[in-house]
Design goal:
The structure is a homodimer.
Chain A (H helix, E strand, L loop, with lengths): L6 H4 L2 H20 L6 H12 L5 H8 L3 H13 L3 E5 L6 E5 L1 H24 L4 H24 L1
Antiparallel strand pairs in A: 1-2
Chain A binds a DNA duplex through helix 5.
DNA sequence: TATTGTTATACTCTATAACTATA
DNA sequence: TATAGTTATAGAGTATAACAATA
């Protein structure tokens, strides 16, 4: 069976984003599989790397998951020896850090994704890749506003 | 705790897409909640509407899920009276169609999302919204290639 | 009282594998 | 043999609710 998308879907932003990320997400998943890591977990690793000493709850907020889910993610990354829990700012909280091994692995993961990004950029016209990144960032900055409006 | 993203993440396409769709997806979820529908299920409804008489397996492929998952989605939409299974091109397959009720509801859902898209477009400069849509579409067209490369 | 981490439990979405009825 | 639908089962990923330790 052949399949059409229909003109309406082509102009619905959420739908286009969803389908694009689906394709993109699959390729990132494949690229990161040799590291035993998913795109979501790499996001956690990058956030820990760029915010050394952060606690689990804060990490969870940045990933849009709750404390309980954040803990599972940290558990997995700790089991893989990529992240470690050090004593935190008080006796309740942990300070998250990449291990030495984690730092090296993250560097390799990012290199892999950058190589993929270069291939994707090659499929676009010069400058379009940067334009896309800029528009996505702009979109994100506006996001909190729509969420409030949607909740009204 | 405050949190930083780090310059590396800002330029990783997949990460930016993921975070943008996270914000966007939440607002779509909130907007569609009164209809008892998720963004993913609306995608299924739109595909059925634009491809009346399609079968479940083909719908599943378009949504990137397998037969089994496609069936669950169709079951849910059928239970809600939005989609119906009619006799298909042979005795094995069903022909999927929106019900009359489904057609009206989908129209209302799309109107709701269009209103939200207009608010989002207002947060961008004139033309940027269309540019974003065009770049996402271009990205999707290139996607099959990266998937092959990633699998190599 | 509020917060951090933790645990137990449940729900959603998806996949795999096996079965059936057609083709 | 292959295909469409179906079913049972299992695995992620996430959420809620409750608890302990600490603030």
């Amino acid at each position: 069976m052949s399949f059409e998308e229909g003109p309406e879907m082509a102009t619905l932003l959420g739908y286009q984003m969803q389908m694009a990320i689906l394709a993109l997400g699959d390729s990132a998943r494949i690229a990161l599989a040799p590291f035993g890591i998913t795109p979501a977990r790499l996001a956690a690793l990058l956030l820990v790397r760029d915010n050394p000493g952060c606690d689990q709850t804060t990490l969870g907020r940045a990933l849009s998951v709750n404390r309980s889910s954040a803990m599972k993610i940290v558990n997995l990354l700790a089991d893989q020896g990529l992240v470690e829990r050090r004593p935190g700012r008080d006796l309740r909280s942990h300070a998250l850090h990449l291990t030495e091994h984690g730092t090296a692995r993250v560097r390799a993961m990012v290199d892999t994704l950058r190589a993929r990004d270069r291939r994707i950029a090659a499929a676009l016209d010069p400058g379009e890749f940067d334009t896309l990144l800029a528009l996505l960032a702009k979109l994100r900055r506006g996001a909190p506003r729509w969420l409030e409006e949607a909740a009204e």
